[in-house]
Amino acid sequence: MRRRLLRLAMGLVLLVLLLLVGAVLALRTDPGRAYVLARAIEAIEGALRARVSIGRLRGPVLRTLVLEDVRIRTGGRTFAVAMTLLTRSSFPPRR
Q: 0.70 exceeded by the pTM?
């Protein structure tokens, strides 16, 4: 019984690790970047209550994101334009 539980626990840990590695690798693909870009636009639009367009996303998604051709519009008028925005994050967060 104990051996079965141990094998089950080890299998679950291995499954979680494989899923994490798969997710990190998926973020390096064009569809993965498109997903991150769509979520970023949704978050920014929700926070600013404005229309946001981002032309291109590049860089390693979990460390440094470079957003190119960023435009923020509100009330039918362009509020801000940035050719390049650089964002950095530490993963896991530093204390």
A: no
